């Protein structure tokens, strides 16, 4: 709009410059014609240069001579009528200014405004959504669709678990076999994740009820409690899949104390543990541990205890 106003002002100024000399010349010519003795004003059909009183007196005194004296003035009027072309001069500035205004305003403003609007709106919106998902995969704990991130935090962690304990039949003093009912187990571990390898120290406790004693004379109901407490050092290898599910394998070794309350037997033995399981990442710092543990003695004892544990745990990383 500002450009249109400037162009219009410039064209108007040029029109004034062109028309000014013509108007000045016209005014000068009109002044000369008006001062000419034989000038007749076409509006009133009179010569303003003659005194009306003198003209009427001369007509009264010489009625016959007025006619011939006016006759030679007719040719003098002719040259005055011929140069009276100001009427033809006046349309010149008007016609010159009239076409200049519409030509310079409309064609130049509309295409520029129409082409500029879509060019400045559409391009910036396209690249915005392409960069954000790439950054979220490594920096955020979860993706935009709610699925957890595959990248777990490396460093220390705390794990707790609980589960079902199944105990193999045990032999007491190489003479009596005792069957054990299913029991429960709980445990806690503190470890450090180095990447694909984890090391931890675990403490656990398992309890089961004795079912019956199997003797040569028959089965005898057993009113017995079996308690096994362990302290182990475990190592695990995480098999990363690039997703929220991480299988693992592990093994450990340590100390166990097994007790039979009513019989009064207890034994301290060295034990080994084998592990397998699946970590399901809830976020980069929290995972659910669905696993299996197999505990067995590695040294001689009065009663050998082998236990299988199906466990569900929670692992929290710091």
Q: Which features does this protein show?
A:
318 residues; alpha+beta; Porin; 2 domains; 36% helix
Q: CATH topology of the largest domain, anyone?
A: Porin
Q: CATH class of the largest domain, please?
A: Mainly Beta
In what range is the share of β-strand residues? 35-45%
Proper CATH architecture of the largest domain: Beta Barrel
Gyration radius, in Å: 59 Å
Runs in which pLDDT lies below 50 for 5 or more consecutive residues are 63-68, 74-120, 131-149
Q: What is the general shape?
A: rod-shaped
Sheet with most strands: 8 strands, antiparallel, barrel
The overall pLDDT, averaged over residues, is 73
> Could you state the order of secondary-structure elements as H and E?
HHHHHHEEEEEEEEEEE
SS summary, helix count: 6
Strand element count: 11
Task: For the record, give the distance between the C-alpha atoms at the N and C termini, rounded to a whole number.
Answer: 64 Å
Strand order of the largest sheet: 1-4-5-7-8-9-10-11
The number of distinct structural domains comes to 2
Structural class: alpha+beta
Q: What level of helicity do the residues show?
A: 25-40%
Summarize the structure.
The protein has helices spanning 2-35, 52-61, 63-81, 86-89, 91-125, 128-139, and strands at 155-167, 170-172, 176-180, 183-193, 197-215, 218-221, 225-238, 245-260, 265-281, 286-297, 307-317.
């Amino acid at each position: 709009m500002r450009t249109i106003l400037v162009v219009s002002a410039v064209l108007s100024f040029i029109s004034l410059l062109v028309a000014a000399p013509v108007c000045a010349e016209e005014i000068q010519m009109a002044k000369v014609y008006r001062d000419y003795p034989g000038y007749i004003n076409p509006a009133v059909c009179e010569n303003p240069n003659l005194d009306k009183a003198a003209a009427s007196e001369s007509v009264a005194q010489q009625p016959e001579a007025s006619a011939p004296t006016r006759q030679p003035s007719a040719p003098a009027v002719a040259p005055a009528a011929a140069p009276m072309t100001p009427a033809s001069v006046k349309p010149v500035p008007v016609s010159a200014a009239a076409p200049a205004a519409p030509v310079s305003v409309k064609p130049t403003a509309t295409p520029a405004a129409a082409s500029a609007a879509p060019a400045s709106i559409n391009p910036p919106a396209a690249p915005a959504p392409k960069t954000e998902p790439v950054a979220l995969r490594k920096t955020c704990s979860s993706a935009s669709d709610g699925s957890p991130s595959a990248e777990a935090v490396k460093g220390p962690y705390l794990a707790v678990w609980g589960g079902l304990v199944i105990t193999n039949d045990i032999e007491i003093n190489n003479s009596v076999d005792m069957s054990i009912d299913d029991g429960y187990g709980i445990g806690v571990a503190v470890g450090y994740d180095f990447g694909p390898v984890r090391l931890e120290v675990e403490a656990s406790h398992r309890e089961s009820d004795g079912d019956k004693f199997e003797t040569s004379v028959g089965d005898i109901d057993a009113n017995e409690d079996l308690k096994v407490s362990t302290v182990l050092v475990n190592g695990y290898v995480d098999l990363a899949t690039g997703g929220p599910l991480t299988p693992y394998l592990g093994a450990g070794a340590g100390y166990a104390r097994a007790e039979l309350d009513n019989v009064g037997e207890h034994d301290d033995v060295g034990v080994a543990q084998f592990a397998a399981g699946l970590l399901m990442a809830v976020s980069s710092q929290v995972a659910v541990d669905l696993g299996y543990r197999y505990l067995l003695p590695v040294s001689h004892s009065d009663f050998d205890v082998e236990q299988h544990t199906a466990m569900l745990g929670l692992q929290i990383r710091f």
